Amino acid sequence: MTDDLFASGGETGRLMGALDWSRTDLGPVAGWPQSLRAAVRIVLSSRYPMLLLWGPRFTQLYNDAYSALIGDRHPAALGHDVRITLAEGWDVLAPLINDAMATGVASWVPALRLLLNRSGYREEAYFSVSHAPARDDDGVTVGVLTVCSEVTDQVVGERRLRLLREVSVPAGTALDDVGQTCARLCDVIGEHPLDVPFAAVYLRDGAILRRVAATAATPPALPAEIHDQDHWGVRAAAATGTVQVTPAGGRIAVPAGPWDDPVEVTLAQPLPSAGPGEPVGVLLAGVSPSRALDETYRSFFALLGQQVAVAVRTARAYQEERARAAALAELDRVKTDFFTNVSHEFRTPLTLMLGPLADALADETAPLDPVQRERVDTAWRNAGRMLGLVNDLLTFSSVEAGRARATPAGVDLPAFTRELAAVFRAAIERAGLRLVVDCPPLPRPVAVDPEHWERIVTNLLSNALKFTFVGEIRVTLRAGADAVHLSVADTGIGVDPAELPHLFDRFHRVHGARSRSHEGTGIGLALVRELTRLQGGDVTVDSAPGEGTTFTVTLPWSAIDATGVPDAPATDPMTTARAAVREATGWLDDHPADTHLPGPAAEILVVDDNADMRAYLTRLLTAQGWSVRTAGDGEAALRSILADPPDLVITDVMMPRSDGFALVRALRQEEATRRLPIVMLSARAGGESGAEGLDAGADDYIVKPFTAADLIARVRTGLRLSRADEHAPAVQPPAAQPAPAAADAPPSAEPRGAAESPVATTSPSPAEPRGAAGPPSSAELPASPESTVPAGAAPVAEGLEAAGSGGRHRAGREPDLPEVDVVWTYPLEPSAAAAVRRDLRAMLPDDKIDPDLLYDLQIATTEAVNNAVEHTQAPSRPHVEVRLRARDGLIRIEVQDFGTWRARPPALDRGRGAVLMNAFGDVRVTPSPTGTLVTIERRWIT
């Protein structure tokens, strides 16, 4: 009978069958009532954890599933009092069991927390529990039937997930700094002490790990800074990127868990960086004494560390972005202040320029002759243009700084707008366009700032004229129900949709857009928007490529109400409009009369989109006896050159349609113009722009403003290049002849650096006609024996042969030179050319050598150095050496590189260097496996 009762109970049933129940309160199995037997069968046959408590001592009978829940308390719990077996949790269980027995009503608790000591420590566990009364054969409640399941993993997992979710919120919030972010994270973590009894965030600060935040329960024993190895594993976790688990060892006394047991273990979790680098810091946390540090708990800490790391990295990114934004704002403020201060400083000298210039033009007592009047008028117009630019910058900087204010005055807005448009009529019609003005009277008076309105209309009309080549410009003013609308529409080139959002950005330019001029500050439309907003309105744009553009200024009636506003004074304030028209007129003068001189004078083409600059250069060059023709942009210049090539081209860099760089590249691609000398002019200062021009293929590069002497000297050198290129005989170089070595001279110290003069000036000389070439002669300096030219050096050697033996006997005073023998070493970089020019000028001052000779010497040496920089590859030494020797009227330059020769592409190989070097003297190339030596020699005799 005993076997039948426990037979279906598995291992626990076997143990129950072997137990001597006579020694328990239940007595021998044979004497058990039928109700108890039935209850035992139910328990043992169930696969769900079930516990039967029977009798006044709550004797335990349970199944296999329940035995797994009580851990090492099984099998000792069988047949014993539950109050002893689960003594640590009885205070929680007793009310439920007693209630079921007293009332006879079953109960259910979905997540009952129990303190269990089933694995060697006081464990936090959760169970879903139901207690039902168990009755004997007489129907009296004598026990409780408990059905339960453990939900510890579910409860703890949901709790930890909630913590991770809450921690992730500050990670995406733009906080003030990293410290505040970490403090908020610790506040969140501190609200979950069951899983993280305490936590502290340590971040790297150089070689130190500094505690930046901690939870409220963090023990004072945790160090604020960690320099070397520590007892907490923080330094090791930061160094290795691995988790460090450390026994507390009595160093801290932090009560934790549901029953305030002391923390016995700490965990140092690395905070990973975004990439493969070292961790950004370490999260030091206490481990709950009520939970085992198993893989699940470790995974939770890893996820928590990742969330904290993300929050820290995000906060740092925000902080760095704010710092960058603050730096940009400060830079913007400084720039605005600079514009303001500089513009103010410009006004005084501009006033002192404009006043006397205007007086000179208006002086009837001592009138200017036509030549002087043209010069003064050019200066007056451009000084006025500069004043307009200064005023625009002042206005814009005031707007940017928030200092600008509109000063409304009652105006007849339609009449004022018509007058402003009328100022532009002559220029617009001269451009072949039609101007339509439709500004009927408004139904009521309005008040605007007259100066601001003038700038708004002027900038919109200037913009329309600049980008419209056919059709019309239409100015319309209309009264709407809520606002007054001004529209300036044109039939110009239009704007690509991608550019429209940026059209009102300051300094924004639409690259590649066809225009009448490339000049301008790039703030015109930005100023229109800001001034319109100061009036209480706004401006919009509607455009499509090839269909024109319409700007619409909208002023709400409420913003321009004239009630109580005084009328504007009866003056003629349209100075801004008239200055803009004068500038626009210069755009239209695309074909001024060319100046051709009779005879074989050299012919120069001047390319510039500024009419005043074209006129000035024409006067300057024709005064030297050269013939000049002009073009207004790169496209027109290219057509003119291909139709009739000049001797030299002077071109601006920034021009509409086709700029100077595009022109140079186009000319270098044509065989007929590949060797045409080109001088570039640019307002862009800096070595980078000059290098860009020379790389594009220009022969010289001049930065504005320049002197007349500077330009004339460069042009004269370019014309020399043109003559030598056209008439140099293609002769073979003379055979090398042994010669005695030059007498050794003691090496002199490297000359003290001096500021480079802008350019060696030359005295005016007669016009240099095409084809005028000096007679060649042989050089008389001792020469080193030359070796065979290797294949890699062929381009330069052939160029020198084609240029011929260009040494010259120069008539004139013999230089009073001391003996010089000096060697300079420069890095193999483009800057070497400028450095050698400076050193030559310092070593050979103007009072010791003819300025023309010095200039030619600088040009020749610079070309040799440039060749070394451009053509040397795989150098054994990244330098170029330049040796200058002068004795008894003989000058020798030796330029030595230390690599193999790299040929220039044929399209760029114009022979420019060879011609310029031969224009100074005899040139020899001495290649060797270790480098190439270029020798340039010149005798200066009377």
From TrEMBL:
SUPFAM superfamilies to which the protein is assigned, alphabetical: ATPase domain of HSP90 chaperone/DNA topoisomerase II/histidine kinase, CheY-like, GAF domain-like, Homodimeric domain of signal transducing histidine kinase
A GO molecular-function descriptor: phosphorelay sensor kinase activity
Subcellular location per the Swiss-Prot or TrEMBL entry: Cell membrane
Sorted UniProt keywords: Kinase, Phosphoprotein, Transferase, Two-component regulatory system
Broad class of where this protein is predominantly found: membrane
Residue span(s) of domain Response regulatory: 603-719
Domain Histidine kinase stretches: 341-559
EC number(s) on file: 2.7.13.3
GO cellular component: plasma membrane
Domain of life: Bacteria
Bias type Low complexity, positions: 738-751, 771-787
Annotated positions of the 4-aspartylphosphate modification: 652
Region annotation Disordered: where it falls in the sequence: 724-791
UniProt cross-references to Gene3D superfamilies, sorted A to Z: 1.10.287.130, 3.30.450.40, 3.40.50.2300, Histidine kinase-like ATPase, C-terminal domain, PAS domain
Record flagged with keyword Kinase: yes
PANTHER family: HYBRID SIGNAL TRANSDUCTION HISTIDINE KINASE C (PTHR43547:SF2), TWO-COMPONENT HISTIDINE KINASE (PTHR43547)
The protein's name: histidine kinase
Native source organism of the sequence: Catenuloplanes atrovinosus
